[in-house]
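Hey, can you fold this one?
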Amino acid sequence: MTERENKTKKSATNVLADFQFVDFSVSELPTILAREFDLEDDQPDSQKKRPKIGEEDDSRYSSGFKQFVVRELIKIKAQLDNIQQGQQQLVSKIEVVEIEPKEANAMDRFMEEYSLNLPFKSVTEFEHFDLTLRANPIARNKFMNSLLDLFDRNHIATKTLVTIMKKYMSRDVALSYTAVKPVKDKLVLKGTTFCKCVINVLLKNHVDKVTGNKATEQTLLSALGSVLANAKDWEGYRARRFKSSMQRDDNESSN
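Sure. Predicted structure:
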């Protein structure tokens, strides 16, 4: 390789390493090359054509080198154009994307359709809802379908019953009911349409927590009785009772 070729290769390497990309058209390449590259050719100075004022002199560069640079710059320009086009398409897609609201589950739809403010704060509210279930088959079917959203993931009957009862009954309402046996000052839940719907839905696929066997009406009613009896601890009352018990113990020990 001649000294001139070494000089040409070295100059080209340095120029490409320091090159900063700008937007240009192919027709502007000769002017850009004339401005950016300073290479000598073999033509004597006496034979060189002097450029007119205001004109660029690009006769100093070998045609082979200029062709190489032009080819490479055209490739780079094409790649940059593709990247820019891809970015513009991506931006346009992002701008038109609309975030759709999450679809409400069956429970939310049921509550909205029948304007339910849960849990019910009074026995009167609960009884009114039970009358709606009894008189309206469509409402009854939608209610049973909505219960699926409250199922325990392992289909443990007791856990599902706790979730359902807390969803529909406040502590005061739950304490106003017993599951099966009549108790003084309490209502029986078993005869309500609400209870019948809950039992029918859970019978299909729930299991008894103790035996692990498929739940029966008897085991479900027994579990329901336990849930209602433990309603006294709902809404933070268990923590209150524990705190009161600790205070009594402290007072007794101080005396």
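The first strand starts at residue 177 and ends at 178. Let me know if you want another pass with a different chain boundary.
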